[in-house]
Amino acid sequence: CGGCEKSIRNALLGKEGVSDASASHETGIVKIDYDEAKIQQDAIKQAIEDAGFDVAA
What we know:
Elements: H1 2-13, E1 18-24, E2 29-34, H2 41-50
Antiparallel strand pairs: 1-2
């Protein structure tokens, strides 16, 4: 839902190194622009999971 998209976006944008994020409930895809020197993929996955969502890859 739109609220889920917003929750994921807000969780990611709250992390240092993430400059942009978008999520689509229709496709189940999250697109993230981030600085690899400031945040690692594992931390991004953890932020999504901490927001209550599953991460497939």
